[in-house]
Amino acid sequence: MSILVIGEALIDIVSTNGAPDRYAPGGAPANVALGLGRLGDDVEFLTDVGDDFHGGFLLAHLRESQVDILTSPRGATSTALARLSEDGSAEYEFQLRWDPDSSLLGSSAHSILHFGSIAAFLSPGSAVIDRLLDDAAEPLVSFDPNIRPSIIGSHEEALPRFEALARRVDVLKLSDVDADWLYPDLSEDAQITRLLDLGPSLVAMTRGGDGAILATASARVTAAAAQVDVTDTIGAGDTFMVSLIHDLHAQEAALSDLSTAELMNLGEHAAALAAITVSREGADLPWAADLTN
After folding, report:
1. Is this model's pTM higher than 0.85 or not?
2. For the sheet containing 22-26, what is the strand order?
3. For residue 181, is it within any domain?
4. Are 194 and 206 in contact, with CB atoms under 8 Å apart?
5. Residue 237 vs residue 251, higher pLDDT
6. Which domain, by its residues, includes 74?
7. Fewest beta carbons within 10 Å, which of 4, 136, 199, 211?
């Protein structure tokens, strides 16, 4: 069965001091779908793009990575202006629309349902995600909130929405920056405990160069970041998510039964994939062939 990814696809306009702006396909869920396709997974992507040049560019880019796209192109494609600092980190400004056509989904079941980022919070498409979760027959559901405070509203508005979604998933991946915004008064350890208490069987928290923490109710590990020369960090977290989904897709054991060694293997593999992406310019996620080089 295929993996279903739901969420935004957009054009990243990358701005760096002293250099011309460059345009690149982006959107966290689009990156996840693309990364899964590049690793050879059968993936469908429900999204919302325009019928303009940018939309055509996005569709061609995703199809080149073997993604089956479910969309009804119309209007203008969403954009994100990413301003890169000297250390390679990015800040974003968005022009967005999120209104996917869920009638394009067939009746066949999927092995995994993944959703995330802006699409989980932005109306009217967020209601589509709710309906699909209501009807979900997938054995595994994953969520990456990829918090963008300038888009999703105030903390008072966004936290209840985040927690309502987190209660409905099996795998929750987020960054330490996301966690600090959601739970600023909690320590890192307490944040993870709080997230597990919401109901996910597996929580993964990425921490940039400090590695990642993976936790279940019975095990908790810290996987080191792979050593690499960083070009920029665009797509690093999305690559980590891709790796988790890809590996869990082949995992037979229940998430709650994962051993410490199995959690560490998941984290180390994800860190290795993310290292490939950050060594490249833009969200250029690994292909299967990169894993054998």
Report:
1. yes
2. 22-26, 10-16, 79-84, 90-95
3. yes
4. no
5. 237
6. 3-284
7. 199
